[in-house]
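Technical annex B. To support the medicinal chemistry partners, we prepared a structural model of the target in complex with protoporphyrin IX containing FE, based solely on the information shown next.
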Amino acid sequence: MSSSVGSPLSAPLRDFFASLAYINCHTIRGTPANGVFGPDLTHLMSRWTIGAGAARNTRENLYTWVEDPAALKLGGFMPAMKVSREELEALTSYLVTLQ
Ligand code: HEM
């Protein structure tokens, strides 16, 4: 998973990200993630809100969103990503680099 978008990723993180289902649901241009079911995340941090206005687009809310989207938006179509706290931190740290 090249990380020409956002910050460079360490090999374990690259493998971890590539193993996640999100690459089938979200697009991050310049990476293998080319899903269209969910919003394009290439310039995620250029958005004020996430979940179509459900919450402010902050690091804390992104962490909560990936951990349990229903905590911020009932009835949304994104599943909870059942990953460890460390992985959630790594995912959130990557997401906030998507300017
Ligand atoms: C680690 C994995 C994932 C991450 C980091 C992630 C990240 C995100 C983020 C940041 C948003 C908010 C985007 C915005 O509103 O601008 C979002 C929304 C969404 N994601 Fe994911 N996602 C992941 C996995 C998935 C998967 C596996 C699916 C499909 C089964 C999915 C489907 C969606 C959908 C449908 C939305 C829009 C929800 C709504 O507005 O109601 N995501 N995701």
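Notes passed to the chemistry partners:
The mean pLDDT is 84.
Residues 20-22, 25-26, 37-39, 41, 44, 47, 50-52, 62, 65-66, 73, 76-79, 81, 91, 95 surround protoporphyrin IX containing FE (CB under 6 Å).
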